[in-house]
Amino acid sequence: MTDKTAGGDVRLSGISKHYGTFTAVHPLDLTIPQGSFFALLGASGCGKTTTLRMIAGLEEPSTGTVHLGDREVTDLQPYKRPVNTVFQSYALFPHLSIFENVAFGLRRRGIKSVKKQVDDMLELVQLGQFAQRKPHQLSGGQQQRVAVARALINHPQVLLLDEPLGALDLKLRRQMQLELKRIQTEVGITFVHVTHDQEEAMTMADTVAVMNGGRVEQLGAPAELYENPGTTFVANFLGTSNLIEATVETAGTGAAAGSGSEIVVSASGAVLRLPASRCATTPRTGGKLLVGVRPEKISLVHADEEDTIATGRNKITGRIADSSFIGVSTQYVIDSQVCPELEVYAQNIERDSRLVPGAEVILHWNPEHTFGLDAAQSMLAGTMGDAGIETVEESA
Amino acid sequence: MRNPLTWLRRNVVVIAGLGTLAYMILPNVVVTVFSFNNPTGRFNYAWQEFSLDAWKDPCGVADMCGSLSLSLQIALWSTLVATALGTAIAFALVRYRFRARGAVNSLIFLPMAMPEIVMAASLLALFLNMGIQLGFWTILIAHIMFCLSFVVAAVKARVLSMDPRLEEAARDLYAGPVQTFVRVTLPIAAPGIAAGALLSFALSFDDFIITNFNSGNTVTFPMFVWGSAQRGTPVQINVIGTAMFVIAVLVVLAGQMVGNRRKKAQPK
Fold it and tell me: What would the pLDDT profile of A251-262 be if each residue is shown by its tens digit?
């Protein structure tokens, strides 16, 4: 559908945005490769929408440049950029029919015979029979598809999506995620997707940039970010993490240590191990380290069965404070001396009837599944209470 | 309908509604009925007999149709100018942050709040001091002035409720500033602009107090009615009044029919 040989890389160099004394985006360098599905993920007010709007040209950067391929577009008006946007809440023109909405971009560029292209595009998003309706006569999901069609018909080098699924209910959102992913694969255009929904970002994107406070916290493939978070914000914002404050016993680095070297830490009597390669900071013996593990990596056994646990695994004792059954799994909250309120997700394959609130249990997991973070940051960054994760994104 | 009290309770809203409607429409009914009167004296205040004479010869009274045509011209021009200016002001007030914005925002509504008679007298003082000949132009200037605030109020409400993303979407879809305004902004603001224009026309057409002070020797339709009421009221005044009422009702009905057809076109 589009000329794939044209350089469609989006390059942001030192781009930033200030509003008076408030800095929405700190100087940012970002390269989004041609044809990729890129997600900007963050809570409300983290600067992700501002970044997107600077690519679209709707916001003028305070410093820095925007390149599309080899062409600098920093000072180009939005209507002169080969970039189109799917707006939050769609922004369909209420006074125009669906057909005219989709044809809008073509007509403004002086293309006379638009009928065939518009009809084809409406077929692509399965809205052929709705061409003569007005936007308010369509459902939310249909309006969303019109918004995508209206942008895609112009064959932009980059398609920008600003929280495009925010207004849809959960089931429709899942469906549209797959639909958008399918369209992206089909047309091969670079998609830049802004969202506050971490599941959405991980499902759809090849690369996710997690933003916080106007900065990119971490950038990488979804699995990489999830398994190896670099900061507590990423660890908490992407899924759930159990973070344990520990003291380093053996740093495990240096010339003697090989690539497979381990760091040994202790926390309230428990000795835990983690691979040096999964530690985001350089540990010092005797220093502090935050040790993290994902809830689904932990196995739970009753205290009576301690001898069944294989040697070499990380172990913590505790007591079940709460458990909730959610069908495919059961989520436990464990109180332990090491850390209050550890979360454990156990698949409901064989359920041990003794694992009820009040029971003494042992948590164990493979040391390979442990990651280490710099202890000089808030353990609560990126949690609900701290970041105020909201469903509504302010545009400024 | 076994219990009259229950019936009353169920229909109290309808009864109150019809009562209010009657209260509002009764004066118009009287005007219409007396347009078919054939009064014996100079005054059309007592019913004599049915007659179509006045309807057959609406311009039969000296100078009346001239004043009517003048009023229509003034109403048309002041509507045009006030709508254009008022729309521009409304957009400026909503969209731009400029120095005197707060002051303009509140001062623009002053003509609405100020007693008309005070405004009329001050305007006259102003015109006389500036040595301007009273007549068509002074009336027009005065009318544009008081129509402006109504247009600004109507258009501002519409522009405020407009999603700014719509214009961003237009700019994103290759529409330059002019195209964005003509293709997106203006059509969406149109209902507000139309409401402001209609209000302007009605206000200007039947204004008496300000016009009376600033007209010099020029006579508009409301002034003609006032003047003739001293010496006698020709039936033709009722004819013009009834015609205006019917035209207004037809315009409203037509508007509603267009709206209904749009609603029917939508499924569900």
Answer: 765 444 455 688
The interface pTM score, or ipTM, of the predicted complex is 0.78
Q: Does the residue B50 lie in any domain? A: no
Mark the ranges of chain A whose per-residue pLDDT is less than 50.
1-5, 254-257, 386-396
φ, ψ for residue A16 (rounded to 5)?
Answer: -150, 165
The CATH number assigned to the domain with range A240-379 reads 2.40.50.100
Strand runs (DSSP E) across A89-241, as ranges? 158-162, 190-195, 207-212, 215-220
CA torsion through residues B57, B58, B59, B64, sign: positive
With CA atoms as reference, the chain A residue closest to B167 would be: A91
Give me the domain span that covers residue B25. Answer: 1-34
Which residue among B166, B175, B183 places its CB closest to the CB of A91?
B166
- To test the contact with chain B by mutation, choose from A95, A160, A192 the residue with the greatest count of B C-beta atoms within 10 A, namely A95
According to DSSP, residue A310 is labeled: P
Nearest CA in chain B to A79: B174
* pTM confidence score: 0.78
Q: Chain A 266-285, CB below 8 Å of chain B: which residues?
A: none
Asked if residue B166 belongs to a domain, the reply is: yes
> Which single residue is written with the structure tokens 């989006």?
A10
| E-only strand ranges, chain A | 10-19, 22-32, 37-41, 63-68, 71-72, 83-86, 158-162, 190-195, 207-212, 215-220, 242-250, 262-267, 270-275, 288-293, 299-302, 314-325, 329-335, 342-347, 360-365, 371-374
B256 is a domain residue: no
Which architecture characterizes domain A10-227 according to CATH?
3-Layer(aba) Sandwich (3.40)
Residue A203: other Cβ atoms inside 10 A: 14
d(CA B229, CA B184): 50
